[in-house]
Specification:
The complex is a heterodimer of chains A (87) and B (397). Chain A has 87 residues and is mainly α. Chain A has 4 helices and no strands. In chain A, helix 1 packs across helix 4. Chain B is globular. The chains are: A mainly alpha (87), B alpha+beta (397).
Chain lengths: 87, 397
């Protein structure tokens, strides 16, 4: 799965799972999902689980502290690098 | 007295402070407790006759809250300003000078320099922060509707420190009985049994909830608005009450932003800069760091670790050598859309975000006397000058 496919999968999940309206102009791949209120603390637990299950990677506490994982782009970039063994 | 020992199997050292805080709420039969790091166990002493198996199960349930963390325990020191400090028992000094008088558990009357210092700190929040952000003054009642706190999800995070209020029932017989009993025997808590009305109000545990309640249904102009308010708040702390670092009744000043995320986050960041500048000016021995609230429910680990991971809470902590630690005197909090959604506050049609910064008045007083003592001429020059100028202005007015 290339990075564009990763983003598309993530975007689809976030829109569906967190009830984001289709006409929400602020919702972009760069938007901070937590600061902008799209995902709360319990949603974040689900999102980490979704990423681990769907993309076959593990996200550790150290990862959450070391890497920004707050937007579609940031998560997709992290997944791509982890899958390639570069993180 | 009966003693129970429960091993700390999976609790990280970082969380022992939270465990210590929480244990007071285990049961009203708890007499005392301590946590031994050497044998990694909790030792609790109970009143005679307590069901130890039931208490053990409670302790184990409590400890499970702290044996994992979904998002890790991010800890970031953003700023520190350290100085050598003497060890001063500020509370004893304040009481001896009659600048502070305890009036019941976690309640205190301040007077003289202690009261003036609290007023100076509050005035500085207004001259620096309220002016910088053009904050609009709002005046809040001390009590808040119990249902408002429910909408703020307060009870699902902090049920333990609620101080609900109630009035005697509107009933001629009950009012007469109560009054007569007080006349004959004096007041006692037992006279309330069966005679109180519903607890539809509580003493507000925080300053900013009224701000959101007051804006219910508003669609704000972009980028949003800034409010300032001061409130006498209550938080019941059980055995954790300490004069004057953990009070049941305390003064909280807040500056609150409600609006678009960019505006709210930039304002919060600017306020943190201003606070650090103030700490340096006054020569405070302090640190500014990532923090979390003492969420008192089984979802503690999700909320606290996410709050830390997102840096939704940061605190300025002032060193208190007498206590061998530090206390938070300023907190900076980001709530995302929690209150915007709860109260239907929008900006440009979207749920508003919010943030607040808050100062605990009595803690500032306690920390300043703890760090610098009672000889005002020996205080750091900026603090000394501002204090003396404040006194002169007050005397002039």
């Amino acid at each position: 799965m290339d990075i564009d496919q990763l983003k598309q999968t993530l975007r689809h999940h976030v829109v569906q799972h967190y009830n984001i309206p289709a006409d929400d102009a602020e919702f972009t791949d760069d938007v901070h999902l937590f600061d902008y209120g799209y995902v709360d603390s319990f949603g974040a637990v689900d999102l980490v689980g979704f990423v681990e299950t769907s993309f076959g990677i593990k996200i550790s506490h150290a990862d959450l502290t070391a890497y920004p994982l707050n937007s579609i782009n940031e998560i997709a970039t992290f997944v791509s690098l982890r899958q390639r063994g570069e993180l | 007295m009966t003693t129970l020992t429960v091993p700390l199997k999976n609790t990280e050292s970082t969380y022992l402070g939270q465990v210590r805080y929480a244990l007071t709420f285990l049961s009203e039969d708890v007499v005392s407790y301590d946590i031994s790091e050497s044998d990694r166990a909790v030792h609790i002493r109970f009143r005679p006759g307590v069901d130890l198996d039931a208490m053990r199960a409670r302790v184990e349930t409590l400890l499970r809250r702290y044996d994992h963390s979904e998002f890790g325990l991010k800890s970031v020191l953003h700023f520190a300003n350290k100085r050598d400090l003497p060890v001063i028992d500020a509370w004893a000094g304040l009481v001896a000078r009659r600048w502070a008088t305890p009036v019941g558990e976690g309640h205190v009357i301040l007077r003289g320099p202690a009261a003036q210092l609290l007023a100076l700190v509050d005035q500085k929040t207004q001259s620096v922060f309220a002016r910088e952000f053009e904050a609009e003054l709002e005046l809040f009642p001390s009590t808040i509707q119990s249902k408002t706190l429910d909408r703020c999800n307060h009870y699902t995070s902090f049920p333990e420190h609620m101080d609900f209020v109630a009035h005697l029932k509107q009933d001629l017989e009950i009012l007469g009985e109560f009054s007569q009993a007080c006349r004959e025997q004096g007041w006692s808590a037992g006279l309330h049994d069966g005679r109180m009305g519903p607890n539809d109000f509580a003493v507000s545990p925080s300053c900013c909830y009224h701000a959101y309640e007051g804006m219910e249904g508003w669609d704000l102009e972009k980028p949003g608005r800034c409010i300032t308010a001061i409130l006498h708040c209550h938080r019941y702390e059980g055995a954790n009450h300490r004069y004057m670092s953990r009070m049941r009744a305390f003064t909280m000043r807040e500056v609150i932003w409600v609006g678009q995320p960019g505006y709210v986050l930039a304002s919060r960041a600017r306020a943190e800069e201003l606070m650090q500048k103030w700490a340096i000016e006054w020569g405070l021995s302090c640190s500014f760091e990532t923090a979390n609230d003492m969420f008192f429910t089984d979802d503690y680990s999700v909320k606290a670790s996410f709050q830390r991971q997102q840096e939704a809470k940061r605190e300025l902590r002032l060193d208190i050598p007498f206590e061998g630690g530090s206390i938070s005197v300023f907190s900076s909090n980001f709530h995302a859309q929690t209150f915007g959604k709860a109260f239907g506050i929008t900006v440009g049609g979207k749920p508003a975000t919010s943030a607040c910064v808050g100062w605990g008045g009595e803690r500032w007083v306690y920390a300043l006397f703890s760090q610098f003592g009672f000889d005002i001429d020996g205080w750091p020059s900026a603090l000394q000058q501002e204090y003396k100028a404040f006194i002169a202005r007050e005397a002039g007015s």
